Amino acid sequence: MLQDKRNDLDAERQKRLLQRMVAELSGAHPDIYYTATTDIAAMLQQDIAEGRGLNQDERALMQRLTRRDIEVMLSLH
Questions:
Q1: pTM given for the model
Q2: The dihedral sign for the CA sequence 56, 65, 24, 46
Q3: Tally of CB atoms within 10 A around 74
Q4: CB atoms < 10 A from the CB of 46, how many?
Q5: pLDDT in tens, 17-68
Q6: Residue 76: its pLDDT value, please?
Q7: How far is CA 18 from the centre of its chain?
């Protein structure tokens, strides 16, 4: 039960971090609205791999996500 709550908290943190990263990405790329989700996920995955805009804990949390995970999370918004 405690593990389930931790997983839920991690998932919520990942969603918030992903939203923040998308906002930062859209500031740098105003035309991102017209970019395919797969391309955005690839950009985000690259930013995560490089640790761009993330502290060490955030990076460790986000590195668990695959590109497909990111695509699914983006499609839910």
A1: 0.85
A2: positive
A3: 16
A4: 11
A5: 999 999 999 999 999 989 999 999 999 999 999 999 999 999 999 999 999 9
A6: 81
A7: 3
Structure tokens at 67: 């590109």
Tokens read off for 71: 């695509």
Q: How confident is the model at residue 3 (pLDDT cuts 50, 70, 90)?
A: low
HEC readout, 14-59: HHHHHHHHHHHHHHHCHHHHHCCHHHHHHHHHHHHHHCCCCCHHHH
20 residue type, one letter: R
Contacts of 32 (CB under 8 A, 6+ apart): 22, 25, 26, 40
